[in-house]
Amino acid sequence: MMERRALGTSGLEVPVVGMGTWRTFDVRGADAIARCRAVLDEAYAAGATLFDTSPMYGASEQVLSETMGARRKDALVADKLWTPDDDEAERQAQRALRWYGDRVDVYQVHNLVRTRRRLALLQRLRGDGKVRVIGATHYQHAAFPELLALMRAGDIDQIQIPYNARDRLAEREILPAASDLGIGVIVMRPLGEGTLARMPASRELLAPLAPFGVATWAQALLKFILSDPRVSCVIPATSRPERMRENARAGEPPWFGAEEREYVAKHCG
Ligand SMILES: NC(=O)c1ccc[n+]([C@@H]2O[C@H](COP(=O)([O-])OP(=O)(O)OC[C@H]3O[C@@H](n4cnc5c(N)ncnc54)[C@H](OP(=O)(O)O)[C@@H]3O)[C@@H](O)[C@H]2O)c1
Questions:
Q1: Beta strands in 163-232 (DSSP E)
Q2: Ligand 1: which residue has its CA nearest to atom 38?
């Protein structure tokens, strides 16, 4: 069964595997939207029900809303504010609240754009009971010092960062600080935007990981991340229903020990 973990000390519990929507849900037309709905069907069936989106992702926010439909109440939505303009930030929030039943569970400042102003808006929305957890995110290592400063100042309860078996910089300062400060960690790009998942994996390579319920290399990559207890949730994106099912299976214990984690990292070069 899918494990659930505390999102830091925020009081929110999340499934360890969720789903991203960058590119995959930025679609138009009935057929493409039906395919997104089929991906979501698998996510719901597996309990992988934290969905990450952003106004930066084109139609994704709206397509996510449309394909969840009445199931919205059974999922957690992690959305973002992404604009240098204060009025547009208000509009982004009003649109999101309309799409997601007057509630955004995790609301993040995207790419640290006008962070102070955006955090003030998010705090107001949290005060109104429309937002549960406030966070911040950036996809670049160069932004880690700014993220750390926000974490240490007590301004945020959650971060979203890049971390995977090849990109391990977060282990140096970000993950220890998150653990010390009780900050929830959502991991973006867990499959290296697909490049790591596409690496050929022989039966021999996967054999030592079979006792951990791992049958595919993508599952090994996701389990590498989730075996670090400082991580709350990974959000792999996929446009294929069968891959959503495959990815969700990585959210079931048992977890790797240090030896298996190094084994996976070593094979990522
Ligand atoms: N905050 C930020 O600045 C930021 C930046 C980047 C991303 N994000 C968030 O993080 C999410 C995930 O990151 P990402 O989409 O960049 O990369 P990712 O999840 O690491 O990789 C997604 C790619 O992996 C492929 N894939 C998925 N499952 C697979 C499997 N089981 N086997 C083989 N290939 C598989 C997908 O292709 P198919 O569609 O063909 O399956 C897709 O091309 C995003 O969707 C977004 O929500 C946030």
A1: 184-188
A2: 238
